[in-house]
Design brief:
- With 195 residues, the chain is of the alpha+beta class.
- It has four helices and eight strands, in the order αββαββαβαβββ.
- The protein has helices at 3-44, 79-83, 108-115, 144-147, and strands at residues 61-63, 75-77, 92-96, 99-106, 124-128, 151-158, 170-179, 182-192.
- The longest helix has 42 residues, at 3-44.
- It is globular and about 70 Å long.
- Residues 20-25 and 136-141 have low confidence and may be disordered.
Length: 195
């Protein structure tokens, strides 16, 4: 076979690998989006114990009330904390926003219930690894990729109700990492304008 024949086979091989990598990424993206939809449904319906189906049992889940919270102030919940969230009355000390001096002693259920104020009646849109809701209210919002290295995030944005103009929107960020063992939910954070 001549040189041009080998060159053509090599180009076909490279094109095949490129197409395979695109299909592989698309498959993972679809899997993450499917998991994200299941997780957001659990959050919307306050079935917080279902989160254990998506986290790494050894690593748990990091949660924060605001996406702008520095990572050192994210609250860590273990697998067991989430497994018993519905009936556990033990109080934990949670950071509120990004002020280390402000702590809230409450149950995991109450923290999740008040930290992720999702209104199912509002129009919802989602994005994959792109911010919808980042706005500048004088707060420097860190990129999620700065907080969680090598992560993938899905943002669910709930549009304003209209009762207060445009200032009562909410976004929930589901933060995933991908390892050889699969895709795991590693973080939850919220972004909202508030009233």
């Amino acid at each position: 076979m001549c040189f041009w024949g080998y060159k053509m086979k090599f180009k076909i091989f490279l094109l095949t690998m490129f197409i395979f990598s695109i299909l592989s990424c698309s498959k993972n993206q679809n899997r993450i989006l499917q998991q994200a939809d299941e997780i957001i449904s659990a959050l919307e319906n306050k079935r917080y114990n279902e989160l254990i189906n998506y986290i790494n049992k050894d690593e748990g889940l990091y949660v924060a009330q605001r996406i702008s919270t520095p990572v050192k102030y994210y609250n860590h919940l273990s697998y067991d904390d989430l497994k018993t969230v519905m009936e556990n009355n033990k109080e934990y000390s949670f950071y509120i926003d990004d002020d280390p001096s402000e702590r809230w002693n409450t149950t995991v259920y109450k923290f999740l219930n008040s930290s992720y104020p999702i209104d199912q009646t509002r129009t919802r849109k989602s994005s994959y690894n792109e911010h919808i809701s980042i706005i500048d209210w004088g707060i420097t919002v860190q990129s999620i990729s700065e907080i969680f290295q090598d992560c993938i995030f899905v943002e669910y944005y709930y549009e304003p109700s209209g009762l207060y103009g445009a200032i009562d929107w909410t976004s929930v960020y589901l933060i995933f990492n991908e390892t050889k063992n699969g895709i795991n939910l590693i973080g939850l954070a919220c972004n909202y304008a508030g009233i």
